[in-house]
Fold this protein.
Amino acid sequence: MIKGSKICGIKDSDTLNFIINYPYPPNFIGFICNYPKSSRYISINDLKKLLNVKKGKSEFVAVLVRPNNQILEEIKSLPFDYYQLYDCTPDEIKFIKQKYKKKIITALTIKNKSDVDNYKLYYDVTDIYLFDSKGYEKSEAFNHNLIKNIKLNKELMLAGNIKYNDNLKNYEKIANYLDLSGGLETSGLKDTSKIEIFLNNLYKVKNET
């Protein structure tokens, strides 16, 4: 059952304010903190300015690819509720979770079934699982049938080339949360008209009886 969404890769105040103040905002808003290869990356100084807002009903997520101590120390006082971690071992995640007292979204990049099976290694340190493609910043897709029948007993977030105008019913039996970034952009920039369509469609699906 789809409970909500995450909008990822926010880097400007106009888009952030639009999302926060929307009548039915996403559950999570993600910020790319340490991955300069992504066009959605935001520097620590700009991040501090951007996050100086009232976040409303959304929770803030620091998206981190194998973070080092420097970036973890730089963001520790920022208003993040979750750390979304790529390419970390279970022990590394456990250390980060305990030291910084954050909830964890464990991001697993998927190409085949063996990639999916790795979720078992992270069960004790994960609050939400995110199944994503191998594309990282490229918004590539993966075969969602690979995760269709797994039983997690934890919430599942789904990313990987989901579009703003997709038929969201297609994801109802797979995911609790949908994670969009590139699918909400036009020419590489977040498009508030696409965000609006997506959030409206999600609201309708969640409230159908």
